[in-house]
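Contributing: when you submit paired examples, paste them exactly as shown. First protein:
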Amino acid sequence: MSRLVVISNRLADPRKPAAGGLAVALGEALNQTGGLWFGWSGNVVEGGTPGEGELHTRQAGAVTLATVDLCREDHDSYYHGYSNSVLWPVFHYRLDLADFNASYIAGYRRVNQMFARKLLPLLREDDILWVHDYHLIPLAAELRAMGCKQRIGFFLHIPMPPPLIMAAIPQHEWLMRSLFAYDLVGLQSEADVSHFTRYVRNEGSAEEVDAQRLRAFGGTVQVQAFPIGIDVDEFTRLTHAPDAVETYENMRDEYSRRRLLLGIDRLDYSKGIPHRVRAFRELLDRYPENRDSATLIMIASPTRDDVNAYADLRQELEGLCGAVNGDYGELDWMPVRYIHRMVARKRVPGLCRAAAVGLVTPLRDGMNLVAKEYVVAQDPDDPGVLVLSRFAGAAEQLKEALLVNPYDTQGMADSIQQALQMPLAERQARHQKLMARLREHDVHWWRKSFLNALQTADD
């Protein structure tokens, strides 16, 4: 059996449950082959030399964890700069928030070259490499330039933007050309595959070799949708664990006279959180029977607070929540409960189970696993209703959710009202179909499907 080598910007010890479903799923495959997981250590070295970083290795059971430090200049240009100030906003359709600083791309290329240089001596001849996410798009091209012949697959966890939006990135052709150094490119949705295919047809005169393979830029790559799932059994166990049960019971007792609506996100401009608060305000205005009855719990965990766009978003959100509470609140009822901090993962299933409506309404998202976690946490005898943005990758799979346009606050308010009024039999039927699909396409299916496709690519 070939050894699996996983490369990602950050890594986690797969033995620790807190690592999350993805790390556990990858860890399962890594353990089977005595694999290697490679990435950034998380350490930023002040005054270090650009393009140089110390390599650290340690064992986590059968898995070798190999990490590299970054100097301040590389971190700021590769991570804060090109990855999160260019690729993240553009891939989420926010050209207005992109910072096309010409110096960022040099740092991005330099770090990917360094990662390739540090990784290459650790590889074995029959290894299979799996590269993850937008931080490392050119890694295979750098490895190939150094003589790497192993099979290399890439999975993009965030959306692939349409061709014209992609074309706004300076040197976009170099970026997309580098994907043709991979044997397999995995994307979250069929819409993403369509965007990729249209780009390489328009910009690279791509030819279709077959239904899944494209030839362009002097190379051939297989492109498929592999919608990432969650570990349904693990999250079900978490839902019935003491912490989640205690959270559920506390919420049920505290809000015994209320219907709970729940949103759980990172505080990011892609998540559509202000639009959600405006839709809830519209709900209270258009359907006054929900006043003193419905409570929106908004958990927006901190993210890059040092970036102006995030600081502005936090200020906007706090103003919106305060206005709703001031205009509609009563002495014994606060319409919006806004929390700007992390909530322990072991308590999340209890929150989800207590909520009559789960609001997952991003403006754009690669997948959004919170939507799937909300469904799994429900009581099948009395399930809540998922209200889901049509612009989340999960919408392609979760068709029994109430799909909404997050830019249409009136339409979203109407859908929330529909969710609150939905009969039990309809809720049960929708939930049953959603659960069947989530079980069929869980995180283990995702991992096995990708690795099977990679092992047979070009055969």
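Second protein:
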Amino acid sequence: MAKGFQGKLFVFSAPSGSGKTTIVRHLLAKKRFNLEFSISATSRAARSNEKDGEDYYFISLENFKQKIKKGEFLEWEEVYKDNFYGTLKTEIERIWDQKKHVIFDIDVVGGLRIREKFPDRTLAVFVKPPDINELIRRLKNRGEESDEKIASRVAKASVELATAPQFDKIIKNYDLEVALKDAEFLVDEFLGIK
């Protein structure tokens, strides 16, 4: 790892449709933060538009389980049966070796596990949608999923919303421009820029 560099970790978690990915992309574009996106590993197959090492590290189920046994993950979770997601320790090292800070767009369970492992170096932020109805509207507007899948995401969102108080900060994404400014302020503050 980069000697003398004390890399930070920025965890952004939220229910699907809350806007966390938009916020993370916005922060990555701000050069002053010196951020690099943490690419997750998954045991699921790549979709046609996804690239290995860019969208995810695609690992076979058997290989994923071997890496779990060897303790190679910072955090991992079986999201659906035989469908694992996780953060490889080597991914954090890769980013810190570049003398950059790590930013995550990650589920609430994984986000809280990362903060548990690096409590002094992690800022865990929960992105909260205005309400469940707005969340449903945003998911439907994406036009990517069936009503059944949306219903499943909304059910999961209720559980995830209950974890918000466990995070260091909560950004209410009622107005995207305000949420983006709030996110910049939090990163500035944690890095000691302001």
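If you have annotations for the second protein, write them as plain sentences, like these:
Strands lie at 9-13, 35-37, 41-42, 57-58, 73-80, 83-88, 101-105, 122-128, 169-172.
Residues 176-191 form the longest helix (16 residues).
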